[in-house]
Amino acid sequence: MNREQMIAKVKAEMPERRWLHTEGVMETAVVLANRFGVDPARAELAAILHDVAKYWPTDRMADMIRDKGLPAELLAYDKELWHAPVGAWVAEHEYGVADPEVLGAIRYHTSGRRGMTKLEKVVCLADYMEPGREFPGVDRIRELSLRSLDEALLAGFDSTMSFLIEKGKRIFPLTLEARNSLLENNR
Ligand SMILES: Nc1ncnc2c1ncn2[C@@H]1O[C@H](COP(=O)(O)OP(=O)(O)O)[C@@H](O)[C@H]1O
User: Fold this and answer.
1) Interface pTM (ipTM) of the complex?
2) Is 22 in the pocket of ligand 1 (CB under 6 A)?
3) pTM of this structure
4) What is the CATH number of the domain that holds 82?
5) I need a surface site. Which of 74, 156, 157, 177 has the fewest CB within 10 A?
């Protein structure tokens, strides 16, 4: 499947506004990749596919998590997390993506994880700060991203965790581990 065919297929999986978000993530991921020494083609590929499963019905995602042996503990946490590992499975099996780094960037784009690769960081950060994003603190994340991939991503995880605490929601531990790991690296 070439780039244009892939884009057409992903676009058909989501409403127009989510495709605009995806385009924003693609552009931002390429800029960040060039800035921080990551292959921009891989960053763009992960960005194209990162939300491919975002609009799947909840039951379909849950079935896939169970049937394909994806981490079952996800089922106890916010459904917003599920599309990322499901998307990585879809990217591999329905779009023929074989690059494990690209698949990792899709799999961890929402939660993060301990010891993220630079490509994973770039895609996760691009998802936080693409031009269409508006939430308190996003401009600070954009500013930090001009000089530090880790500090900008840390600010992103801080904002997600504060949001979840404010809403009284459970925090999926990978995000906490991702945040701790960034703090350990920056010491
Ligand atoms: N560690 C976490 N624990 C629980 N829910 C989380 C965690 N990280 C992210 N989320 C949920 O996922 C949402 C992020 O979704 P969003 O950024 O819109 O999706 P996408 O990553 O596809 O752009 C957060 O608003 C929050 O509800």
Assistant:
1) 0.91
2) no
3) 0.96
4) 1.10.3210.10
5) 177
